[in-house]
Amino acid sequence: MAKDVLMDQVVQILHEAGFDVSERVNIRPGSFDIAARCGDVLLLCKVLFNIDGLSEETASEMRLLANLLGGTPLVIGAKTRDQMLEDNVIYMRYSIVSINVQTLYDYFVEGITSFISASPGGLYVSIDATALKEARIANDMSLGSLAGAIGVSRRTISKYEEEGMNASIDTVLTLEEILNVELAKPIDILNPSFLVKRQEKENKEKQAREQKDKEKAAAASGGGSAPMTTEAAEEYLKESKKKFDKDGSYIHPPAPEKEMLSYISTLGYDVKETSQAPFKAISKDKQSVILTGVSNYNPAVIKRARLLSSISDVIQTESVFLINGTSKVKSVQNTVFIEKKELVNIHGPEELIEVIEERKTPEKSKKQ
């Protein structure tokens, strides 16, 4: 229930900010809950009461989709661990900006920029390195004298100037007071590049520490491996009987959906498959982007086609369902249905777009 209330608040704020908002994605797991567009700004939003519920797999797909569609992934939530998210503070989860509804409102409706980000250990502000160095020189202060004035090391000041290293809120306020200049770097929710780089650096350091711990544990245990269990041995024998390609990879029998997506790629499209989106793939060439679903014809696909049409209208793409077998309809709203036997008779991207345009519901207001 808490998530439903949160979702309603998010949609209301986005509408107030002038966004067109898609229907809610109701499949689980889902890489995003709603798509929203205002002019050139496209958001793929995931709404979670606790932002720590975002998995790495979901975040990875959100970033992939946003990159392919020219948008920004965004998580909106209410709490993290055992505390509520603070207003106008930017949290990062797997390189995706995560904020509460008040921050969403302030940024998109009121135009208020955030300066504070959360990191392990507390809240921090990123320093404008160039502005700090210029202000220190203009005030005729050495690295040492400025460091002494705020109670940090000379090396710390040097890092602030060279790397724009994060500092505590109190430290930045003290620096601004001493140098009489604004030093806090604003955070662009739509392009948080320096926050992404910082988190990637933190993740690499964490992985390096974990790898060292594993190596120490292996050395302490003598480095030997545990004997193979009966279950593992049976699985090994099962795998050894499968057919393998020359490069050692297992040859999977082609599923119908794989066949149809492969055929789309032969038409000149770059086909990127998804695992948690309400469509099976994004098919993209220089001229068009197609949200591509694959299914048998059934009542469920009609419902999903309506959702796909809503999303594609907001994102401003085409939407197609490739049908394995016979379809009773040519389109559902603006989502076009193409049977497998029809698909193989299409011989180029222009011909595919022509079929899509012909089959779209003539009047967008027409109900299925």
From TrEMBL:
Residues 132-190 form the HTH cro/C1-type domain. Keywords: DNA-binding, Transcription, Transcription regulation. It comes from the Archaea. GO terms for molecular function: DNA binding; DNA-binding transcription factor activity. Pfam families: HTH_3, PDDEXK_19. Residues 199-217 have a biased composition (Basic and acidic residues). Residues 199-235 are annotated as: Disordered. The keyword Transmembrane does not apply. SUPFAM superfamilies: lambda repressor-like DNA-binding domains (SSF47413). The keyword ATP-binding does not apply. This is Putative HTH-type transcriptional regulatory protein MsAg5_04210. It comes from Methanolapillus africanus.
